[in-house]
Amino acid sequence: MTTTRMLRAAMLAAALLPVPGASQARDLVLGRSSEHQALDPHFSQTGTNNMTAMHVFERLIAFDVDNQVRPALAESWRVVDPTTWEFTLRAGVRFHDGSPVTPEDVAFSFERVKNIPNSPASYAHAVTYVAGVDVIDARTFRVRTTAPTPQLVEQVGLVFILPKRLAEGSTLADFNSGRLMVGTGPYRFQEAVPGSHVVYAANAEYWGGRPAFDKVTLKFLPNNAARVAALVSGQVDVIDGVTPNDVPTLEARKDVKVFGTASTRLIYVGLDHERDQSPFITDAAGAPLDRNPLKDLRVRIALSKMVNRQVIVERLLSGAGVPAGQIVPEGLGGYDPGLKPAAFDPDGAKRLLAEAGYPNGFGLTLHSSNDRFANDGALAQALGQMFTRGGLKVNGVVALPYNVYAAEATARKYSAFVFTFGTGTSNSAAGLRNVLGTFDRATGQGALNRMRYSNPSFDAALKAALGEFDEGRRNAMLAGAARIAFGDVAVVPVYFQKVYWAAREGISYEANKSEDTLAMFATPVK
Questions:
Q1: Structural domains of the chain ordered from first start
Q2: Burial class (CB in 10 A: 0-12, 13-18, 19+), 310
Q3: Which of 19, 148, 127 is nearest to 507 (CA)?
Q4: SS3 category, 381
C-alpha cells in the first residue's frame, strides 16, 4: 500500500470514527427491516448477518461509504512478491476480554471460515487462494497464496477476526447464546432476543475512540408500515428499508430527515440451470415437465425480454432504481457500457419460446423474499404478471420472510427466484466469482451461485482477470467476463436499487453504497 493511499485511507477512516464530546451520552435504536440468521460472524456473508456482526467484530480492512478500502485491524500491507503479501496489525488493539489481537488470531479466522457447518453463504471463497499464514512477529504476518492474487486484500479483508483462544472448537450455539460474542469492535454485546432485538453497549476502550452512543439497540421490524410508525412515534431513531412510496411522506415531516443513495445492489431473477427436472416447472396444463426449459438459452433470453424494467423503476419504485444489464452499476471496475438492459419485447419473447419448443409456454412458480428490500414482495407479483403476459403460465408467486427464504434458496428448493447481490468492493470481481462462477465447495467459488450456473468460457475469462495486477487491464478483463455471462443470461438482471434511511431530528445518518445499517454511520447532531 503506497504512502499516498495509506494517508488517504487514514483520512477516510478518521472521517468515519465516532465523534467525541458531550453528545456521546445518549442511546440509539435502529429499526431494521431484516433479522440476521445467526450471531456467529462467520456463519453467512449475507448483509443481514454482517450488519449485526460489524458492531462487535472487525476485519483487517473496512470499506467507506463509496466502497473504497480503508485500514481497520491491519494498518498497512504490501506485496512482497506475486504470491506473498505482508500485513502489519494496528498496535494496541485488544478484544473485548482484554487479550491482544495477534497474527495467530488472523490465521485461525482464515482457517475457521472454511469449516462452518450448514453455512448458507460461506466465507470460504475469501481464503480460496491462501496457501498459508506465516507469523513474522507480534504484529506482522505474511500470507502466501497458491497463485498471484491481486485482490487478496479485498478477499481476506472480508473475514471477521476472532480470538483463537476463545473461538477454537466453537459452535453456532456458543455465539447465539452470546458467550462468544467477543470482538474488537466499537460495541460490546449485551443481549439478543430472536425475532425482537439485539442490544450493545459502548466499548470505552475501542482503538478508534469511544463510540458516539452509550447503548445501541437493533429492533427487527419487517413490516414497512410498522417500521415507519415506530420512527414517527419515537420508538426508534433510525430506520432502513424506507420504501420509495414512503420517501415523500417522511420528507414532508419537520421532525424526520431522509438519507438516500444509489447502491450497488443488483436485484435479479435466478434460474435453475442444472437440473433436468426442476421442482417448480410444469407444462402449460400444470403437469410436471420431463425437461427443464430454463436450461435453454432461448428461454432465458425470452424471460429477460418479458421484464419491463423501466415500468418497474418508474411505477413500482417511484424512480428509486436503475434498470440493469450486468452485475455492477456504472462507476465500479468491470462495468461494461455495452451491456445494456434487455429491451422489453413480449412478442419477441413468445417467438423465442416457440422456437425453443414451447409455443404455448410452460408453467413456473416464482419465489421471493417479502422483507429483504423495499417492495420485494410487490416486485415478485409484478414479475409474475409480466411473465404471464409474455406467454408463460405462472402457477404461483410465493413471498417468504428472508431468514426462511434465503436458507431455502441456498438449498436450491426453487426453480425461479428473486434475489439480490450488493457489491461491497470497488469492482465486479466478487459478484462475478461468487454469484456466477461454477460452484466449487473446495475453493469457495460460486458460494452464492444458487442457480448452479456453469460456463467454462466464463470461468476461464474470470480466472485470467483475477490474476491481473494492473488495475486498468483487470477491469477490462472483468468486463469481458461479464459479457460472456450476461450474454448467456446467467441471471435475469432487473435493476440496481436506490436505498433510503430515515432518522428522527437530532440524528444524522450517512447513506452508503453497501446499504449497511450501523450505529457507526449515525451521528448525534444538535
A1: 264-497 (3.10.105.10)
A2: middle
A3: 19
A4: helix
Radius of gyration from C-alpha coordinates of the chain: 23
Kindly give the pairing relationship between strand 281-282 and strand 363-369. antiparallel
Q: Give the helix ranges, DSSP H, for 356-437.
A: 376-389, 402-410, 429-431
**Dihedral sign (CA 383, 384, 385, 386):** positive
What's the burial of 254, exposed, middle or buried (CB within 10 Å: 0-12/13-18/19+)?
exposed
Q: Which residues contact 526 (CB under 8 A, 6 or more apart)?
A: 23, 506
pLDDT for 94-134, tens place per residue? 999 999 999 999 999 999 999 999 898 889 989 989 999 99
Question: Residue 45: which residues within 8 A CB-CB, separation 6 or more?
Answer: 121, 122, 123, 158, 447
In sequence order, the β-bridge partners of residue 220 are 32
Q: Which tens digit of pLDDT belongs to each residue from 355-405? A: 999 999 999 999 999 988 888 999 999 999 999 999 999 999 999 998 899
**CA nearest neighbour of 243 among 145, 66, 378:** 378
Contacts of 267 (CB under 8 A, 6+ apart): 321, 324, 373, 379, 418, 419, 420, 493, 494, 495, 496, 497
As a whole number of angstroms, the distance between CA 329 and CA 66 comes to: 13
Give the burial class of 66: count Cβ atoms within 10 A of its Cβ; 0-12 exposed, 13-18 middle, 19 or more buried.
Answer: middle
Q: What pTM did the predictor assign?
A: 0.73
Distance CA(418)–CA(493), nearest Å, equals 10
Distances, alpha carbon 15 to alpha carbons 18, 52, 161, 327, 516, in Å: 8, 22, 23, 29, 17
Question: Does the CA dihedral 43-197-517-515 come out positive or negative?
Answer: positive
- Give CA–CA dist 14/384, Å, rounded: 47
Q: Is 55 helix (H, G, I), strand (E, B) or coil?
A: coil
Q: Which amino acid is at 215?
A: K
CB of 28 closer than 8 Å to CB of 197? no
Cα(161)–Cα(24) distance, integer angstroms: 27
